[in-house]
Amino acid sequence: MTSLHYDEALVVLNAPPDLEEPVVDWLLAREESTGFTSFPVFGHSTRHDDLNSAEQVSGRQRRQQFQIQIRADAVDAFLDDARTAFGTAGVHFWVLPIVAGGRLIHGSGNSE
Known about the structure:
Layout: E1 8-15, H1 20-28, E2 36-43, H2 53-58, E3 61-71, H3 75-86, E4 92-98
Antiparallel strand pairs: 1-3, 1-4, 2-3
């Protein structure tokens, strides 16, 4: 990976639906993040080698997406561990810098 110039990153994993529970369990055991978001998505691609017949006709493949906010300096180790755990399962990933983030708190007297 290239040198990172931000403090926090969003790691996005798109996994086959049958990996939902294993990935959830794996993420819950990680120390890089205090939580993550997951939801069903569809993957679209011009590559059809991983698609079954119905997916080729519809032009999409069901996936489960996970979004994990972690320290930028932990991304490489996180991805290395993910490769070890799921490297043969067809999981696609990308990493985005987080420019800002936090909780929305209304009023001046509230704190986290």
